[in-house]
Amino acid sequence: MKLELTINGRVHSVEIDPGEMLLDVLRRLGYKSVRRSCNSASCGNCTVLMDGKPILSCTTFAARAMGHNIETVESLSEDGKLHDIQESLLETGGAQCGFCIPGFVLTTKALLEENPEPTEKEIREALNGNLCRCTGYESQIKAVLNITRKRGGHVNE
Amino acid sequence: MSFKVLLPESEDELMTMLMYDNAELMAGGTDLLVRIRAGKVKPDKVISLAKIPDMDEIVDKGDRIRIGCKVTHAMALNSEIVQRNSPIMVLALREIGSPQIRNRGTIAGNIVNASPAGDSLVPLYLSNARVIIHGPKGERKLPIEEFIKGPGKTALSMGEYLRAVDFEKTGDWYPVFHKVGQRTALAIAIASLGMLIKKDKIRIVFGSVAPTVVRAYKAERFYERVNGDITVMDEFLERCLEYLSPIDDVRASAWYRKEVIKNLLKRTFDSWRKRVL
User: Fold this and answer.
1) Which residue has the higher pLDDT, B139 or A42?
2) Which UniProt keywords apply (chain A) (predicted)?
3) What is the ipTM of this complex?
4) Any B CB within 8 A of A133 CB
5) In what order do the strands lie in the sheet with A47-50?
6) Cβ of A130 under 8 Å from any chain B Cβ?
7) Which domains does chain A have, with CATH numbers?
């Protein structure tokens, strides 16, 4: 079936199999920041934003994304300049092997849009569906708290 | 993994499709698609609710709340009606999966999965939930305890689907929800405990320790008989444990599950006593 997908503000017209997952279609279209790892809705690496909310693309039909805005990490950096969430993760060492980072960045983006000054507990709750096997999470939590500080917000430590 | 995806656009169309052989109904897909990929179910057709309008109502029905079959965990969590009238539901929903899962998974899906570990089932059992079933013969209602028959088994017959669920408002009860899993997020419960307490009245529900979620009616009656004065904790525990028939599986042993429930009960009553005194 033919499908129109809006990804990062750009409309793609794409031929898909009705049973195809959003993850597969996104990667086929070249959005390689969307990672496949558990493929069973357990790790959060394939997270994308659908209308600003984090969802798992490994268990969402591509057809389901029609008429919604899909956002991947590719949309974040402008002219080679990293988004402040990415920048902050780099500074704290939150990105080690980096595999889980796109999912982390997008989930964080959604969190900060809903709640610009999250407490550490709220950050942990929001990010608890994104697994990382390198860092032990401390550096990611710190990165998110730092963004709040840098944006001039109050840090609830 | 080859199946056809069907996208009915009305409830009538849906009902016709439900008569097809080997078709699975899907709302959020957070569970079904994982089971398909694992080869546990091999449907020829997956019927998605995506294009059917409405079905995502959260309605104040006086002393009850009605939730449509397309309401996600996140929608229910953010609903003022739910927040105000069912703190126990809020406690349980916050423990489900992760934000990503809560944005797609539905309460109705949690019910039809009929897993003894279904987190949202605990508050539903505590709130005397009724499921509203639509099918070729019209509408029927069933208490959730009669709807869920065993692991993965429900009272749905051919052509029927779960249209909504309604449950009591319990805003004036003190809510307790404990879930023990291997990690906080995305973990299936090893054992869970939900309670509603109001003076000398109590409702108690256990998850993951029997073929279905269970409500410990005998223990509830005992508690009322002694006017909530459970200085004789052992007798109360005994009545609770009657409802437990846990299994050994990859997540925990039966013995461990029982111990966990005993400890959760003791701990809850200790803190409850401190609160009251």
Assistant:
1) B139
2) 2Fe-2S, Iron, Iron-sulfur, Metal-binding, Oxidoreductase
3) 0.88
4) no
5) A10-15, A2-7, A69-71, A47-50, A53-56
6) yes
7) 2-75 (3.10.20.30), 84-151 (1.10.150.120)
